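Figure 3 (text version): structure tokens given as input.
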């Protein structure tokens, strides 16, 4: 009975970790279901306390294996311990302790997924959770179109998320996961995966998110490049060089026609005010350059109030994940994150050309996705977030090594892109 309930429960936890349904909280509630620092609604705290308590019950038989996974990833361990220790010098110790505890619980779920399930099972669970959030968005569009659309944003579609940018981020993540499953050599429900992928593209277009429209083509182009590299034929190499020439040409034109490109994407030279936020954030970071204001401690203090007064409107994030890490954890914290990220990225590079690795491209594409989206939004070190759960789980999977497509342990021998790799020579 316990085993039958475990996986559906974890999918449910991942669904809530997508931060879906936030916009359907009571109007006077500024708390978020995941990472927001703008509130501590007791119902939200109770929800996540319950979810984590149940998940920890499922973790008990796997503690020894989870411990081995944790110790095998020293940079992740060092980062999480540093986040916890930051409460000692935090500008708001209470908020830092709450944030740190939530983040450690979030990381524990990622470690558990890596220790308990095969990588294929993890990908399927991610797809199910994100797919549920997309179906919920479509359902609410039918039931309550006024809430599912952003009236102040020219009718942009936000689904069950608070903002169209968050929905666009999750839609791009969903598309990566769906196409990775579709590319499996023995994939099931390919028709459904194609429908969900097409729905993701439609939802992204409806969201009118500039960042989403920039990141998605880049990730799809990366999939094509990786497929061409694996082909290793003369025609494929010629096509690859032609594609790269077009890409570099587009980058060259974009550099010299930056203003025109921004106008095409519906942005101005300040990136809708982000450059002003970044300049003020850097100024505040210099006040506590090395250790920051403590995890989750900057925006809840008088310094955060002064920031909002200076910028002229309410804001609870720097709209840049790396700047938010600097504000909370300082240069030391950003170094710890960067060291772990570079380690994982280097390992992911070794898997993308491996024709026998199951889902070999997915970690690389996810890390690239995380890297790009955090340029203009803040999604690093998010508590109760599917992004951080996936990051921890994929770092652990890369350390362990992805399953081999020919291995008996692989549930579904697969490649990891929309374009299946050619079969290796016998």
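Below: residues designed for each position.
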């Amino acid at each position: 009975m316990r085993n039958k309930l475990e996986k559906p429960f974890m999918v449910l936890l991942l669904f809530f970790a997508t931060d879906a349904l936030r916009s359907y909280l009571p109007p006077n509630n500024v708390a978020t279901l995941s990472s927001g620092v703008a509130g501590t609604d007791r119902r939200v705290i109770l929800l996540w306390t319950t979810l984590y308590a149940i998940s920890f019950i499922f973790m008990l038989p796997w503690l020894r294996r989870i411990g081995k996974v944790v110790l095998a990833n020293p940079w992740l361990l060092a980062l999480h311990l540093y986040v916890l220790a930051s409460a000692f010098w935090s500008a708001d110790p209470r908020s830092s302790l709450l944030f740190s505890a939530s983040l450690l619980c979030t990381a524990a779920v990622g470690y558990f997924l890596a220790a308990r399930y095969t990588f294929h099972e993890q990908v399927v669970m991610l797809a199910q959770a994100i797919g549920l959030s997309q179906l919920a968005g479509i359902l609410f569009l039918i039931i309550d179109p006024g809430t599912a659309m952003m009236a102040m944003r020219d009718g942009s579609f936000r689904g069950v998320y608070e903002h169209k940018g968050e929905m666009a981020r999750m839609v791009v993540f969903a598309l990566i996961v769906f196409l990775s499953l579709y590319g499996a050599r023995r994939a099931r429900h390919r028709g459904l995966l194609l429908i969900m992928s097409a729905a993701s593209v439609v939802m992204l277009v409806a969201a009118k998110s500039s960042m989403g429209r920039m990141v998605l083509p880049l990730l799809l182009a990366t999939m094509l490049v990786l497929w061409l590299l694996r082909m290793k034929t003369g025609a494929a190499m010629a096509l690859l060089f032609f594609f790269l020439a077009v890409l570099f040409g587009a980058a060259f034109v974009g550099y010299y026609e930056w203003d025109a490109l921004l106008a095409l994407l519906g942005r101005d030279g300040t990136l809708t005010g982000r450059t002003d936020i970044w300049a003020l954030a850097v100024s505040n970071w210099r006040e506590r350059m090395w250790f920051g204001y403590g995890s989750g401690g900057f925006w809840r203090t008088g310094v955060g109030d002064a920031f909002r007064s200076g910028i002229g409107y309410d804001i609870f994030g720097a709209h840049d994940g790396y700047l938010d890490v600097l504000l909370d954890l300082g240069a030391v914290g950003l170094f710890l994150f960067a060291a772990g990220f570079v380690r994982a990225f280097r390992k992911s590079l070794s898997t993308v050309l491996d024709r026998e690795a199951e889902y070999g491209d997915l970690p690389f594409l996810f890390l690239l996705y995380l890297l790009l989206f955090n340029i203009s939004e803040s999604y690093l070190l998010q508590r109760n977030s599917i992004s951080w759960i996936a990051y921890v789980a994929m770092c652990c999977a890369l350390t362990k090594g992805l399953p081999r497509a020919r291995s008996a342990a692989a549930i579904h021998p697969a490649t990891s892109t929309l374009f299946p790799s050619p079969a290796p020579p016998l």
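The two ends are 44 Å apart (CA to CA).
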